Structure formats: C-alpha cells, structure tokens
Amino acid sequence: MIIFAILNNKNNLYYPENHHTIILYPGIEKYEILQVALEQLIIELRTLKEKGLKDHQGREWKIELYFSSDWKFLAICLGLNAANSKYFCPWCEISKEQQGDLSLEWKINKTINNIHQNYKCYRGHIRPAIFDMIPLQNWVPDELHIMLRITDVLWRLVIDELKSKNTWGNKARDVIIEEMKRINVRFHFWLEVGSSTWQYTSLMGQDKLIVLQHFNLSKLFPHSRAIQIRNLWDNFYLLHKAMKDFNTDAKMFSNDTHAWLHQFLNSDFYQASDITPYIHVLVYHIPEMIKIHNHFGLAAFSCSAVEKKNHQQVSYFFKKTTKDGGGGKNGKGRKSAILDILEHENRMLYFYNCNEIESIHLPKRLQIQTE
Ligand SMILES: [Zn+2]
C-alpha cells in the first residue's frame, strides 16, 4: 500500500483517515512489479514537483516531496540491495565491516542527483532509484520500524545469551511465559513440525514497548547482569521516546545515541556484528534527520498510522485473506476488495469536500388511489 499525507497537517497525521491510499495491490514487494505499479504515480510526482499544484480557487501550491517506509520498501525504491549486504545504508557509504569502528563518524553523504545520473557511483546500488525526484535527506527513517526491529534485536540477544550459557530450557521458557503474564502480554513458545528450534510470538508494537519497559530480567539473569541489560533497554526506550519528541535537541540526541552504542558494545556480550542497519541509522542518521526536519518533527513521518490503516482495511474489507486481492476462493465474479477499499476512500473524500447529499431532495411519496 502506498499512501500520501499532507505533512503540514502535522497535528492530525496520527489518524489513519488523513493518509490517503493511492496504490494498493496484493502482490509481493519487488522492484520489477513496483516499477510497473508506480509508473503513473512517478509521472504525477515529477509534475507536482516541477509545476506545483493549482487548486480549484486558483491558488498555486509549491510541493516538496518526502518519503517514509520500512527498510525493505525503502531499499527497493532506492534501487539498493538488501539490508544484510555489505553496503546497506541508504544515506552513507559505510560497509558492514566498519560498523564496529566507533572512531568513524557517519553523515548523509549520498545525493539523489548522483544516484539519478549514475546509480553505480555508490556501492550497493544495483538499480536506478524509483523515486529519483525526492532528495535523499527527505527519505526519512520511520520511528515505528526502528523501535520494532531494534527491540527484536535486544530480545534475540537475550535469548542467544541464555542459549550460550546453556540455561535455555523448559525452565527459562516457563519463566518468560510467567513474566509475560505478569505484564499482561500474550506470549507463547512452540515447536514447528520437524524443527527443534523454539518459535515465539511476534509481538505487536504496543506489547514490545511494555516488554522493553517492564520485563523483569532478573528472573532470567544474575542480578548484576540483569541490571546491565535493563539499563541498556531503558536507555533505548528513552531514545525512542526522544526521537518522537518535537522538542528533542539534535546535538544532545546525537550524544545520547553514541553513548548508547558504546554501552551496547561494552555489555560484555554484544559485538560489532550484532549492530544492525536500524541501529546504525538510529545512532548516526536520526540525529541529522531531527535537525533537518525540525519543522515537522520525526513523528510526522511515522508509519504507525499507515500500519493502523492497513489493519483497518484488512479487517473491514478482506475477511481473513489478502493473498488474492480479497475475492476469496469462492468469490469468483465478486468485486475485488481492493476496488471496494479505493471506492470507499474516494467517496469519503468526495463527501468531505461536498455536502451534496444534503441538497438532494428526498423523493416524495405519492399515493394513488383508485376507486
Ligand atoms: Zn549510514
């Protein structure tokens, strides 16, 4: 799903209804498919950028374009290879091996003009960028996915640590389930058929924040180690909160993210290879983005309202499956749910601008009596 929102409407960007669906398709996220699906949009975006927009009252609007999404979609649209590649960063030229060297500083140093002229000038770029009319500093990382994915890493590192100390057994799993119950988070472990690796519930955003703040790590680790990890988690929670706060000072935030990375690598167990692309972005690029986009604040670029919108669409229109466009196996001939969604949104928008429905005279009922 691709939506657009008007950033100047920043006080209302948290509501899904202010994010308007412009492209919706049930297939996978793939460069070749997106190139076709986005063709018309790209043409319109170029025109909007160059010529602006004239509204029905004759006012002319200058348009500045921004982009925000999760990592995978952003990388595809930028023509960049996958997040686990050697050159993974959309904004700078760091390589995986350089991540552990804390003496190096990383700033946005790529430009969309260079990518537009010759994408091969930066290592890791394997295709032309799709949205090459949007300046790279306006490709803004999404706070929601930064929180989700870094919390995943912190949680996985805890499980890995239990495994490495041979304390990963039924007892540890029972303790985790008990503790999750205490903090009111639904959580399960299970084994898939033919596998000996325990799977566990993938938590939703709100639950992740609860775990991050309230999970009692001393149930799993010796006291001193639990305090150490708890401190790292608390500091990450505060960073995430500050990232969304309009009043956060970019310089102070940069000091805090750097201190957090030092703490991450100093906690005896975590290594440079545990630093993920999202951690790199949080430490080095979010402070820059806070400074550049201080007019809107980074929360304005959050994908959380879009995730909510997606959830609403799936529950209202798709009835369980999204794989076939919502028609369902037995729904041959029935209108696709995608059309339903787009028509519904168009009507909402129409009646938002026109209260024509009030001016329609209700039909008069005539009763004809015959003798
Ligand atoms: Zn970078």
TrEMBL record:
The lineage of its organism: Eukaryota, Fungi, Fungi incertae sedis, Mucoromycota, Glomeromycotina. This is Uncharacterized protein. PANTHER family: APPLE DOMAIN-CONTAINING PROTEIN, PROTEIN CBG23806. It comes from Diversispora epigaea. It comes from the Eukaryota.
